[in-house]
Structure formats: C-alpha cells, structure tokens
Amino acid sequence: MAAVSGLASARRVVVKIGSALVVGPDGAPDSAWLSDFAADLARLRARGQQVLVVSSGAVALGRRRLGLNRKALTLPEKQAAAAAGQSALMHAWEAALEPHGLPVAQVLLTRDDTEIRRRWLNARATLETLLDLGVVPVVNENDTVVTEEIRYGDNDRLAARAGQLIGADLLVLLSDVDGLYTADPRSDPSAAHVPLVTDLDAGIEAMAGGANTAAGVGTG
C-alpha cells in the first residue's frame, strides 16, 4: 500500500525499465508490453504527473541487428550494438506513446553529466524543459562513447541520478521479477518475497544475483 500511495501523490516519477521487459525473446521490441506500459504512463500524465523513463534495451536490440549472439561482448562491440540499437529503441517508444499523444525525446547521459557541476546543470535544465513541455524523456547511458572507467554500467544507478537531477518524488525500478526475494524464485521454490527493506545490510545485498535473461545483462 505504501508504494501505491507514494505513486498516487508523486508529482515527478522516474521509472527504470530493464531490457528483459523492453526486448522480447526474439530480440525485437516487445510491442505488447510497451503498449500496456504506455497506457499506464498516459494515466499518470492525465493526473498531472510528470514521468521520466530510463530505458534499457539499446544493446540488446543492437545485438540482433548486428548478429552479435555471444553473451560476453568486448567494450567496442557493446558500443557498436548500442549505436545500432538506440534508433530501434526510440522507434519502439515512439510507436508505443504516439497513440496517447505523448511526444518522446531521447536523452543520452554519461556519468560525467551527473558528476561535473557545469554538465549537471545543463542536463538538469534540458530535462526540466522537456518535462515542462509535456514531453516524456527516455534516458539511457551514452554507451557509444563511454569507457569502462567512466560508465555507469547499470541503469539502476543512472535512474537514481536522473531522479536527483529532476528532484523526483518517486523512483520505480521495473524488471521481470515482481520484487526482492531471498533467492531466485524461478529456481528456488522456497524463496520468500521481501516486501519492505528498511536497512541495507550484508544480508540484503547477498540476495542480489546476476541477470537471468540474454537481454538483461546490466547494459543499456
């Protein structure tokens, strides 16, 4: 109930969406899921709420375009896949949101954009303007130019920084698992759902695991 009431009262919401939701098993955009999500987003907008989306999926979509089927890619291969996949990702978002009359804008960020003061101010001004104009910003890491030393590497972290940039009231992380479990519920039937975490300790951190799909590999 706390999460529902928080969503209802939030003026600005950041929603991070993992690759496993954006990209279907065939490696193409999951248009049905995106359409359902777009309808939910439109309802939030109709209530006067502003929504920023942090969307993974570019690398996964680019893999398909470039025929890069290996799970482990070199950094240049990941950057090439991101470059090839960004246009497909944005086309998928435009197709999902256009029926609701919601314009979309792509915003690609690097870690420096949220850590260097001048660039942070510029990024904030851009996002504020887009939101004020009624646009849905779709944010992703600029994987085509970053190196391992200066990249987020995880859109959960990028979503948290994006929330700081716009002064968001709520951050929602969507994945193909419906919450935190003591173990992977798909392989351990005894896994218990953890509805609320009040202290982030070693026990909670130990519950984290790796990606369980080809698309969800912790990349953009």
Describe the structure.
- This protein has one domain: Carbamate kinase.
- The chain has 8 helices and 7 strands; from the N terminus they run αβααβααβαβαβββα.
- The strands form 2 sheets. Strands 3-4-2-1-5 form a 5-stranded parallel β-sheet, with helices on both faces.
- The longest helix is centred in the middle third of the chain and has 23 residues.
- It is globular.
- It starts with a helix and ends in a 15-residue tail after the last helix.
- The relative contact order is 0.19.
- The mean pLDDT is 86.
Topology readout:
Layout: H1 2-9, E1 12-17, H2 19-22, H3 31-46, E2 50-55, H4 58-66, H5 75-97, E3 104-109, H6 117-132, E4 136-141, H7 155-166, E5 170-174, E6 180-181, E7 193-194, H8 202-205
Parallel strand pairs: 1-2, 1-5, 2-4, 3-4
Antiparallel strand pairs: 6-7
Helix pairs in contact: 3-5, 4-5
Q: Top keywords for this entry?
A:
globular; 220 residues; two-stranded antiparallel sheet; 42% helix; 15% strand; alpha/beta; Carbamate kinase; five-stranded parallel beta sheet
Short description:
The chain is an alpha/beta fold. The protein has helices spanning 2-9, 19-22, 31-46, 58-66, 75-97, 117-132, 155-166, 202-205, and strands at 12-17, 50-55, 104-109, 136-141, 170-174, 180-181, 193-194.
Main sheet: strands, sense, barrel? 5 strands, parallel
Percentage of residues in strands:
15-25%
Tell me roughly what share of residues is in helical segments. 40-55%
Using DSSP, what is the number of strands? 7
Poorly predicted regions are none
Tell me the domain tally: 1
Average pLDDT metric:
86
Report how far apart the termini are. Answer: 31 Å
